Automatic annotation (TrEMBL):
PANTHER family: 1-ACYL-SN-GLYCEROL-3-PHOSPHATE ACYLTRANSFERASE. Pfam families: Acyltransferase. Residues 38-158 form the Phospholipid/glycerol acyltransferase domain. Keywords: Acyltransferase, Plasmid, Transferase. It comes from the Bacteria. Signal peptide: none annotated. One of its GO terms (biological process) is phosphatidic acid biosynthetic process. One of its GO terms (molecular function) is 1-acylglycerol-3-phosphate O-acyltransferase activity. This is 1-acyl-sn-glycerol-3-phosphate acyltransferase. InterPro entries: Plipid/glycerol_acylTrfase. The keyword Acyltransferase applies.
Amino acid sequence: MKPFNLFFVFVYYLVGLVTRILHPTTVEGMENLPEHGALLCPNHSSNWDPILVVLRLPIHYRVHIMAKEELFRNPVLAWILRKVGAFPVSRGSNDIETVRTAMQSIKSGDNLLIFPEGTVIRNGIGYVDGLPPRARAGVAVIGVRTGATLIPVFVDGEKKLFHRTRIIFGKPYEPHYTGRRGTSEEMQKIADDLLEEAYALGGQAVGGAPLCGK
């Protein structure tokens, strides 16, 4: 497990207090979270998402965050991010070292947060040819190879100041695949299903559009 450091305690309470004022949240489904070995998979509608999710978890809940490498270009911010358990991922490349770090965080008994979309998707921003991108299959690969408990998570897209945001932790998703590691098609389907379930928790289709009848 990652060491529990005083800096994280400081950030958790100070930043947590600030975010509770600026972005009050309602959290549901905490009972669905295992203590160890969870792979949390939220939809990604804002840069606030990882902060809001992590700071609404209990302080003893050990979670690492896979964050885009651009955030680590500032040395001060990079130091802070690493202190709270984040590590960089190079989007659009086959970053083997990042995958190993992600898998090790789960195998060591901690938990991991990954955004299956890989980028912010909100009101058409991040869409390709008018459609939201598919989930990254690597999320499923990490989950299957580590035996992680896959948890879909919904985070409200609206992040207006002083407006309440919902965070919903869904029930564990049971992946289905053949053999020990499954096929690439099966991994893509698992990732897509996870993302679909995350949005469905909030009554939305993938990309944020309301589901019919909701």
